[in-house]
TrEMBL record:
Keywords associated with the record: Cell membrane, Electron transport, Heme, Iron, Membrane, Metal-binding, Transmembrane, Transmembrane helix, Transport
InterPro entries: Cyt_b561_bac/Ni-Hgenase, Cytochrome_b561_oxidase, Di-haem_cyt_TM
Transmembrane feature ranges: 6-25, 32-49, 69-89, 96-118, 124-147
Membrane topology category: Multi-pass membrane protein
Gene Ontology cellular component list: plasma membrane
Alphabetized Pfam families for the sequence: Ni_hydr_CYTB
UniProt-annotated location(s): Cell membrane
GO molecular function terms attached to this record: electron transfer activity; heme binding; metal ion binding
Name of the featured protein: Cytochrome B
Top-level taxon: Bacteria
Length: 164
């Protein structure tokens, strides 16, 4: 999922900066956004139905609180960002084409003012998601490389019983 989020951000930035590639990149960006939404829902369902392993002993109380809040923010952004994009396209009466003739229904009324607001929200949320995601990756790298405390096992979708 991390690779999809990173790719999505760079595709989004590139499609605005390199207009000659806009149609191709948009054809990738839309279904990839929906794939991220689906994966985020699966991850959230897993998170809500499974007991979390305990925090690592290398993490103090403040670090644990920050980790929890950043996780909540990541889930919120991973869910909201694709929905904003979908609503934005709906407001512009532009279909979200998944593949071929398969497209998603509109989730917002056709309204160009709404489109403009959602476009700004989509951009702001993208940068916020990227910043949060980058901070999260940096923390994971610190734990993995410097502390070597096994945090990757704790973060996996289906953690083993001996995590932590």
């Amino acid at each position: 999922m991390a690779v999809m989020v990173i790719a999505q951000f760079f595709i989004g930035v590139t499609m605005i900066a390199a207009l000659s590639y806009y149609p191709l990149l948009l054809a990738i960006h839309r279904p990839l956004g929906i794939a991220i939404l689906v994966f985020a829902i699966v991850r959230l369902a897993n998170r809500l139905t499974r007991r979390l392993p305990p925090f690592l002993t290398t993490m103090g109380p403040l670090e644990r609180r920050i980790a929890s809040y950043s996780e909540y923010l990541l889930y919120a952004l991973l869910l909201v960002q694709p929905l904003i994009g979908w609503a934005m396209l709906s407001a512009a009466q532009s279909p979200v084409v998944l593949v071929g003739a398969l497209h998603l229904p509109a989730i917002a009324p056709h309204n160009l003012t709404l489109y403009a607001v959602l476009r700004t929200a989509h951009t702001v949320a993208a940068y916020l998601l990227f910043a949060t995601f980058t901070a999260h990756i940096c923390a994971v790298m610190f734990h993995t490389v410097a502390l070597r405390d096994g945090i990757i096992r704790r973060m996996s979708l289906w953690p083993s019983k001996n995590n932590g």
